[in-house]
Specification:
With 246 residues, this protein is α/β, with parallel strands linked by helices. It has one domain: Rossmann fold. Helix content is 40%, strand content 14%. Strands 3-2-1-4-5-6-7 form a seven-stranded parallel sheet, with helices on both faces. β5, α5 and β6 form a beta-alpha-beta unit. α4 packs parallel to α5. The longest helix has 22 residues. The chain binds NADPH dihydro-nicotinamide-adenine-dinucleotide phosphate. NADPH dihydro-nicotinamide-adenine-dinucleotide phosphate (NDP) binds next to α1 and β2.
Length: 246
Amino acid sequence: LKPLFGKTAFVTGGARSIGAAIVRRLASDGASVAFTYVSSQNRAEELANEIEASGGRAVAIRADSADAEAVKRAVAEAVNVFGAVDILVNNAGIANLKPYDQFAIEEFDRMIAVNFRAVFAAIQAAGPQMKEGGRIINIGSNAADNNPLTGASLYVSTKAAVAGLTRALARDLAPKGITINNVQPGPTDTDMNPADGPYAPIVSGSIALGRYGKASEIASMVAYLASPEAGFITGASINVDGGVNI
Ligand code: NDP
């Protein structure tokens, strides 16, 4: 039997990159998956069709994470379609890097809204309907603990906030038998951070394993944390970073 047979998952930012790898992996582990997108409508529909064609269930929902109410509505829609959300994965994120004195305050608000407020909103929407065994998995960043880049003040702050939220909510959620954890990817080859992109020369030397991670390697940890096997892990921030933070 597939480990997530009978489970339903909700993934933010699931149309491409790490999010798409998570959607594919949870679906191949047997979960029905709803996922959000904001700009990648075609890729979202293609991914949902791909999963349905291979015998799974997937639904793409447009929801801008900058809009907390839209995120809550998307969770409610997923609950409507599947009857429940058992696994919530907060993956959607943006990295706006620039010198700290050049950020407009609107850019501060947007970084906080997408990378942190939306995470809280999704948890508020999904948590109360979760049953014993529910799983919340946030995608933070290893940079929350160890950041080599200049210009990352807001990005790192939002990811540190996600780690703090994860620790604190573990206490709130534990009495209901729900776990919450924070996967902290290191440099991972995606549209945000291509292995041949502008950050590569700065970060590559610090990756002990000497290469960028693959999106599927982040999805592997998410799948493990989502599975019944991971029932004794909560409040943790787990680096999947090829040994950057060592
Ligand atoms: P990408 O930029 O490649 O993809 C971003 C994803 O987030 C897309 O699916 C995008 O959707 C979605 N997204 C962005 N803004 C919004 C929004 N306002 N509303 C809804 N969805 C949105 O990023 P990665 O896959 O690399 O990153 C995924 C997560 O992993 C992020 O939280 C990131 O911070 C984190 N991370 C990544 C690392 C890396 O090296 N790649 C390292 C550490 C952490 P759409 O296409 O529809 O716009």
